[in-house]
Amino acid sequence: MKVIISGATGFVGKNLSNFLQKSSIQSIGISLRNRDWCASDWNNNFVAIIHLAGKAHDTSNAANPDEYNKINFDLTKDVFDKFLRSTVRDFFYFSSVKAVADSVEGVLDENYRAQPQTPYGTSKMKAENYLLKHPLPEGKRLFIIRPCMIHGPGNKGNLNLLFNVVKKGLPWPLASFDNQRSFLSVDNLSYLVLEMIKKETINSGVYNFADDISLSTNDLVALIADSIGKKRKLWFISPSIIRFFAKIGDVIPLPLNSERLKKLTESYIVSNTKIKKELKVDSLPISSAEGLRKTILSFNHKA
């Protein structure tokens, strides 16, 4: 069995390729930077195309919106159109929960009303809409995957920043804010993709990918500290005092402003109930804490 992966050299692509190989599924990587991919033969017993390639969210908001549209929509359209003309059975499009909402009230499931707030999220939702409006030929399946924040060894992201705070022995001053966030281990992501490929009974549709249990930032700080043998340092400062200094940071340059405070303390809970029901599983192989500990220890090893 063989699959095609766009973005195979990225963090998710490398981990997914290795995971599939252990289950005797060969992955062939294609680079969308070179237009030669258009001439490649997809009618050679490939069971799936896993479209990971895309322009990632620029948290500084400095990227040109046209770049997001060109990469996340135009290229996705080209890859999907080729899939429709091929004998490949499954199309996996890796979108994002950010295609639905930048902030979440309650729990984000697949029926949550989409209101993307950024050029990144808008380009992802535009691609989703294009895919969904096309009738699928008989025997083909379309999976739109919306992962939350993906982590694992080799990943460079916000977890690494929090890790460095704890490793340096600095206190976490926002412990009074009670939040819950969902994460996704790259191992659980790979498991879900493999099971969806293997089980032909899985229906086409939109699926959230997330670990089973959400964690607070305080939980993360404690997990990091315990994993690397550091003392937990959680400062429970009054939220009103923190917000006061954040407002000052809106006017003069400070490490904290209102927007940064929101990002650090807001909740973002993602439901994975739909995909688990489809797969008929009660839980994913790796717990939230176990997956995060694996990622944390990889940071410590590099340090």
What key attributes describe this structure?
single chain; 303 residues; alpha/beta; Rossmann fold; 6-stranded parallel β-sheet; two-stranded parallel sheet; 10 strands; globular
What do you see in this structure?
- The protein has 303 residues and is an alpha/beta fold.
- It has a domain at 2-147: Rossmann fold (3-Layer(aba) Sandwich).
- The chain has 10 helices and 10 strands.
- The chain has helices spanning 11-22, 65-85, 119-132, 158-167, 186-198, 217-228, 239-249, 258-265, 273-279, 288-302; strands at 2-6, 26-30, 46-51, 90-94, 107-108, 141-147, 149-151, 183-185, 205-209, 269-270.
- The strands form 3 sheets. Strands 2-1-3-4-6-9 form a 6-stranded parallel β-sheet, with helices on both faces. Strands 5-10 form a two-stranded parallel ribbon.
- The two termini are 39 Å apart.
- The mean pLDDT is 92.
